[in-house]
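step=encode ok
step=design start
structure_in=
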């Protein structure tokens, strides 16, 4: 993507078309200095947060009246966004369900699943221990694993995909989940995941199907990890203050 600093705009069209709005020359809300889109479709400042907030609202709906929801969501979202920090995790490709060109997909998948399992274990462990500090640590771990879950749906490609292509999956009913990815592999970056685009960016129907699948999966996980496991021991430390 080419940027014109004097005009303050991008001079190439969004390769994904109109999936993020009618202005196909806009990038990260016209704030390329204060925001970035380092890995693609679920960008750091504009996709991960609303997707996470929407999943939280749906999963915790029956308990929201008891909680300081803004405080909880802020912790989860900030932890989610930190996964895209260039200084810490940008080059840790497997966290994003990516791999380097030429890297064995099986190795990247193992590293992805180890990261996810470790964060899920942390959510459960810290939640059971209780206390304000550990309950916050559980929310941080939840935000981090949420990013990995969401990136799975953005970056997964078929094992049979060529080095620079990714066939439609979710739109065609051939998608998977982070728990069921035997037929999928992390996309190579660059490669099946080209620079400045996404594996599914050229197909709005596929982008929409992946986003919906990501939302449904995260809601399901939040209903257990957040609405049950975390809430049981931690809600009192994050309860809504009396008006």
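sequence_out=
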């Amino acid at each position: 993507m080419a940027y014109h600093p004097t005009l303050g705009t991008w001079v190439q069209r969004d390769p994904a078309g109109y999936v993020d709005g009618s202005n196909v020359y806009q990038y990260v809300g016209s704030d390329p200095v204060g925001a970035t889109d380092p890995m693609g479709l679920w960008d750091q400042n504009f996709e991960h947060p609303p997707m996470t907030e929407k999943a939280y609202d749906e999963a915790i709906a029956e308990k929201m009246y008891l909680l300081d929801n803004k405080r909880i969501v802020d912790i989860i979202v900030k932890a989610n966004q930190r996964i895209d920090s260039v200084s810490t995790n940008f080059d840790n490709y497997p966290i994003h369900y990516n791999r380097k060109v030429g890297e064995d997909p099986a190795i990247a998948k193992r590293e992805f699943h180890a990261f996810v399992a470790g964060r899920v274990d942390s959510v459960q462990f810290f939640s059971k221990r209780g206390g304000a500090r550990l309950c916050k640590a559980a929310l941080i771990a939840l935000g981090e694993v949420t990013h990995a879950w969401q990136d799975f749906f953005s970056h997964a490609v078929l094992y049979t995909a060529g080095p620079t292509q990714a066939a439609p999956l979710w739109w065609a009913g051939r998608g998977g989940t982070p728990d069921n990815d035997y037929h999928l592999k992390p996309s190579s970056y660059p490669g099946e995941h080209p620079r400045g685009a996404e594996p599914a960016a050229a197909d709005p129907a596929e982008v929409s199907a992946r986003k919906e699948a990501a939302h449904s999966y995260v809601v399901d996980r939040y209903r257990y990890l957040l609405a049950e496991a975390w809430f049981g021991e931690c809600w009192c430390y994050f309860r809504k203050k009396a008006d």
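step=design ok
step=annotate ok -> The chain has two domains: 1-35, 40-238.
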